[in-house]
Amino acid sequence: MDPLRRFRQEYDGEGLSEDSAPEAPLEIVEAWIEAAVERAAERGDVPEPTAMSVATVDADGVPDVRTVLLRGLDHRGPAFYTSTRSTKGRQLAANPGVAASLTWPSMYRAVRFRGYAELLPEDEVLAYFRSRPWGARIGAHASAQSEPVPDRATLEAAYAEAAARYPDTGSPDDVPVPEGWGGYRVVADRVELWAGRPSRLHDRLVWERVGPGALDDPTAWRRVRLAP
Predict the structure, then answer these.
(1) Tens of pLDDT along 104-120?
(2) Phi and psi of 42, rounded to 5°?
(3) Which of 5, 6, 152, 200 does the annotation list as catalytic?
(4) Integer CA distances (angstroms), 118 to 54, 96, 152, 184, 205, in order
(5) In whole angstroms, what is the distance from residue 146 CA to residue 69 CA?
(6) Are residues 25 and 31 in contact, defined by beta-carbon separation less than 8 angstroms?
(7) Dihedral, CA atoms, 160, 164, 165, 168, nearest 10 degrees?
(8) Interatomic CA distance for residues 179 and 146, integer angstroms
(9) What pTM did the predictor assign?
């Protein structure tokens, strides 16, 4: 028997009710992310709790998806950092439409965002880059993200060259921000929370934008329940 069909598991999660859902999505999204991070620390069954799938479209309208790390969330939306010259960066420059999701299978929970991406300001990019470990900052210089590399040795040689150029002094300023390295914020028009329930009768609550306003502004959103 096909193992993909043989494996079955009931999604016995906590569920999600309208009584526990605010009129604007930010508060509950923050709470779910915090719960995932805490569970990762306490129980270890939520690896990379801030791993976020980001979907873009190419010039032909074909979708493309990859995983990044969520590195910021406030009333403006979720944020991530990357090379603006990467495939995703080039696609977002041509079409800022974007979708993003975080999934925590062991908690039977997921969050989805849909909207458009905007570049983060330089001061936020600089502050985040300085907060990264030295090795990660060097890696940003060594990797021309999404470009072909002949082999692993070439990549490691580029890393060694960058490490020699910018030695670790213990200062957040010892490695400059590479040209073309930046970040994006997802300005959401739609936010969905999914909670797994038995018999596939999952809970899906969606916040749809009905006017201008941030993720914490109740006047900007309409909450609806969707069939699973």
Answers:
(1) 999 999 999 999 999 99
(2) -85, -40
(3) 200
(4) 14, 7, 33, 5, 25
(5) 17
(6) no
(7) 110
(8) 15
(9) 0.93
Which sign does the torsion angle of CA 183, 105, 193, 216 carry?
Answer: negative
State pLDDT tens for residues 127-153: 999 999 999 999 999 999 999 999 999
- Yes or no: say if 111 and 32 are a contact pair by the CB < 8 Å rule: yes
User: Quick one: which H or E segment has residue 224?
Assistant: strand 221-226
200 is a catalytic site residue: yes
Residue type, 174: D
CA-to-CA separations, 33 to 70, 71, 101, 221, in angstroms, rounded: 10, 12, 12, 20
Residue 8, classified by CB atoms within 10 Å of its CB into exposed (0-12), middle (13-18) or buried (19+), is exposed
Instruction: Please name the amino acid found at residue 215.
Output: L
Which residue type, as a one-letter code, is found at position 213?
A: G
Percent of the chain whose pLDDT exceeds 70: 100
